[in-house]
Amino acid sequence: METKALLIDDEQPNLDNLQALLKTYCPQVNVCGTALNAEAAKRVLYTEQPDVLFLDIQMPQQNGFDFLRSLPEYNFEVIFVTAYDQYVLQALRFAAVDYLLKPLDINELQAAVERAIKQRRLKEQNQLLHNLMQTLKSGQSQDEPRIALATAKETRFVKISEIIRCESSNNYTTFHLSDGETLLVCKPIYAYDDVLTQYGFIRCHQSHLVNKPFIKSWKKEFGDFLLLTDGSEVPISRGKKEGLKKALHV
């Protein structure tokens, strides 16, 4: 799976050099953006939601540590990239995956990337387990079952009965709710497949999960689509037709 990275450094040559090294020696990393200062970094951070930050420490106006302190939460791993070695202890306090000194050593860069990817996967597994436990706990109580959805700004506990459908786009999933709200979660749709199918959701397409009670009809003109009660049309893939027929008893 591709790992998205944001590079933050106040010197453009450093950004260009790091981007070139990652492209050549760490092809599993996709640089989703670069930034020359903290404010620019925040804009990219919230729009792209990267998995890893390569962060310079000494920057004008707001250094790397101040930048991290200004964020409400960390949904990414941090690799500090700096020309100075006196910040190691401070970097450890921010739970940095690694601390790389300029000029960059290729072996150290590759090792840091691998550690970041492993740490990211571990956190994702823990989050999925947490989500499942929240769902199971809710199901054991008198309340309707809920699922924990971690967005860029908060973790929302949503009633499963209020989810109309889920739509995937690469490593992101958009949850469409019955009140018209949408929630964008930085997880692929398959991460929710097993949990939601237990509650009547149907995988009608590689990129779509639908909640059975919200299905209004099966349209067969100009292709196969499910018409949902909110007016949306969801495609039905050829490989999912037979399973869908069984689920809908048609």
CATH topology-level name of the largest domain: Rossmann fold
Q: Domain count, please report it.
A: 2
* Separation of the first and last Cα atoms: 37 Å
> CATH superfamily of the largest domain, please?
Response regulator
CATH class (first level) name of the largest domain: Alpha Beta
Shape label: elongated
Spatial order of strands in the largest sheet: 2-1-3-4-5
Put simply, the count of helices is: 7
Radius of gyration: 22 Å
Low-confidence stretches: none
Number of distinct beta strands? 15
N-to-C order of helices and strands: EHEHEHEHEHEEEEEHEEEEEH
Main structural class: alpha/beta
Rounded average pLDDT: 86
Protein name: Two component transcriptional regulator, LytTR family
GO molecular function: DNA binding; phosphorelay response regulator activity
Modified residues (4-aspartylphosphate): 56
InterPro entries: CheY-like_superfamily, LytR-like, LytTR_DNA-bd_dom, Sig_transdc_resp-reg_receiver
Short recap of the structure:
One of its GO terms (molecular function) is DNA binding. The protein is an alpha/beta fold. The protein contains seven helices and 15 strands.
Describe the structure.
It holds the Pfam family Response_reg. Keywords: Phosphoprotein. Residues 4-117 form the Response regulatory domain. The protein is built from 7 helices and 15 strands. The chain is an alpha/beta fold and 250 residues long. The chain folds into 2 domains: 3-123, Response regulator (Rossmann fold); 144-248, LytTr DNA-binding domain (OB fold (Dihydrolipoamide Acetyltransferase, E2P)). The radius of gyration is 22 Å and the shape is elongated. 30% of the residues are buried.
